Amino acid sequence: MVSGGESGWLAEPDSAVHRALRTELLAARERRAGAEVRVLDVGGGSGAWAVPMAAEGCRVTVVDASPNALAALGGRVREAGVEDLVSAVQGDVQTLTDVVGESAADLVLCHGLLEVVDDVGAAVAQLAAATVPGGAVSALVAGRHAAALAQAHAGRLAQARAVLADPAGRSGPHDPLQRRLSMAALQGLLESAAGLSVELVQGDGVFEGWLPAAVLESDPGGPDGLEELESIVAATPELLVLAARLHVIARRPGALG
Fold this sequence. Notes:
There is one protein chain. Helices cover about 40% and strands about 20% of the residues. It has twelve helices and seven strands. It starts with 7 loop residues before the first helix and ends in a 6-residue tail after the last strand.
């Protein structure tokens, strides 16, 4: 439990993103002197992050615009037995503080959301406002350069050029995403539009899209070998920009809450 010691999800190495969140949650627990850590998962869908965090003792609020996603969250929460620790709120990031209030959480998750919002500047400003002073925002976004490489690797050179040339990093008019970001663009957005201080930048999934299944099957380490490899390169500047997903931990200035 977060209120006790490292166990379960928090004790597992897993991905670089998990490790960063584990560190942040444990630091938040120390700041709160053992009280429940408050997590806000914006666009959290069916609870892929929220439910494991609640199982570790965090009090989690999931805000999502989709009633279907929140219904699925309810089933997952009941199955995990964490009904008392997870709250579901139907809402939008553009009006986040209207539904949860300001300074509502020690840690705010924004995973897979900045790619699809209409006004990304307003969105990150709302995320920052919902974070307690001294708290953190975890942003996980689709990487622009990895998308261009994936398009080129698949033989779609026109789409690869579009991803690199388009200001929003889109492959064309039918691209399901509003934007893709480079690490520099993501960091600049969080610092300029939200007034946050970026403390950690890392890649998530540098090699996962490029290694053939036969390679993983023949490697003695199997999936664990890939996980170890990913952990090595996650913070390597020359490689993290090519990750499928870019991850940032950014701090809201002010006294630690």
